[in-house]
Amino acid sequence: MFKISRRRFITTTALGAAVSVGGRFARSAGPGDAFDFTQSLDGWETISGKWTVEDVPGASRGGRALVQRGPDNEYNVIVAPGGPYRNVGVSVRFKPISGQEDASGGIVVRLSEGRYYVVRANALEDNFRFYYYDGARHMLASTNVAALALGEWHKLQIMATGDRFQGWLNDRELIDHRDDRFAAGRIGLWTKADSVTAFDALTVLSFDAG
After folding, report:
1. What is the DSSP letter of 84?
2. What class does CATH assign to 2-206?
3. Beta strands in 24-87 (DSSP E)
4. Which helix (H) or strand (E) holds 12?
5. What's the confidence (pLDDT) of residue 31?
6. What is the pLDDT of residues 30-51, one digit of tens each?
């Protein structure tokens, strides 16, 4: 993990570009964290799944990425250091490698006491979806997309500000939804069932004051 300035975040991610262009949050944005997975997973918390740092072709820094390979859980979640956050922008590259039941990647926000929101894309389905989880998964928003290619890198992003959640897939804003059931929490990464998925270049930018 290394610290990044708001300027660097804005110039290196489409989510940051949206912040810059819109201007709604730029003045309150604080420093961000970038995780490149060239280091160990010290400070990360595995909730479920088998998460390891591996050599993955196309990984952006040092050829190393975070990979989930556990096939036995309904959902696989790992929690990043830092937080809790209320207002936050999160960006990650992900590569769905394989899966018979599911081949997905997702970003978790506002995780607290086992409850969270998740935005996810699935290479086996032609949709992009936003859920909340409170012991069971509940869909809040969905949009149709072309199914993602297995074995290729894609970009996933979410911005949570108050009760508004915006989601991007490969630099296209596809979800804009309001929900107020969870106020704040930590950031994580997510897969479902037997997904083998790699994650790279996770960036977290807080818009909370202080």
Report:
1. -
2. mainly beta
3. 32-35, 45-48, 51-55, 64-68, 75-79
4. helix 6-12
5. 56
6. 457 888 788 778 899 999 999 9
